[in-house]
Amino acid sequence: MINFFEESVFFGVTLSLIAYFIGLLLKKKFKLGIFNPLLIAIIISIVFLIAADVDYEVYNEGAKYLSWLLTPATVCLAIPLYEQWELLKKNYKAILVGIVSGVLTSLTTVLVLALIMGLSHEEYVTLLPKSITTAIGMGVSEELGGYVTITVAVIIITGVLGNMFGELVCRIFRITEPISKGLALGSAAHAIGTAKAVELGEVEGAMGSLSIAVSGILTVILASIFANFI
Amino acid sequence: MKYIKQFLVILGISFVGELFKAVLPFPIPASIYGMIILFIGLMTGLIKLDAVKDAGKFLIEIMPLMFIPAGVGLMESWGILKPVVLPFCIITVVTIVTVMTAAGRTSQWIIRRDKKRGKLND
After folding, report:
1. Is pTM beyond 0.90 here?
2. N or C: which end of chain A has fewer CB within 10 A?
3. Is residue B73 part of a domain?
4. Same domain for B83 and B59?
């Protein structure tokens, strides 16, 4: 049976889709933020792999085709951006200020907490790019001398948590404007947060998409300055 | 035919994004170059919305699925994550809240101020 998994191309994708589908059913039944389909899909897949004693490489042999779609899908985020262009032009000041505050806050929060907790320079720069999209964040971490694998893990955890609790944070801090919700999700939790923003509405999705690109590029520049502080 | 053409445009742009990444010295991934190329293409009218719309919306809709493999990959990095898990988790959670609040509240403040000004001018 294990050998069969190792030869199978469709095992990883099928497991991922079934796990996500179970997540969707649970969310529909319980309507709670904690039943986030993405988180449930990840947990079910991990539990299954451990229980069946299947290696991650075996799973990823099929599942990698899901990751493969990520580049073209991110390219397509230009579509909602284009469709919301008028709104974007009209609110460019608010949008720009929102994204810049988001990036500065992300870097400052990591700096302050790293100082309080006494993290080393390597640990600090590992965390600096945590709010931006994985591909850019890996580059930043590597450039500054961080632990790239940990950066990737933290970026993904940030995304999943943002996807899960984003709506709740918006409610608690009374962020109600669709533009602001999208900016908040995109700046704090990159593409995975934007996946949630897309679910909330077209304006939210467009603003999330814009935040990924702008905050990613801004972080590249600003993180190299912030890296000198610890 | 419609979908073949749309996927051709989207994957073609992804490929051009890869070329940009290979040629330019910045740590910017192919996907972001591609996003910028498609956006400029749509704005200038070189790419018609109809040439990418259906396939594009489909890809965006199934986007959450594409993060599952990376998430499952966390089982591999557990070993190196374990010693630092507590401080890193605290920083992660706090940062999400501060960043969302900063980006959300500042933009919302300006949007509402502009709306009020707009009303006064009417």
Report:
1. no
2. N
3. no
4. no
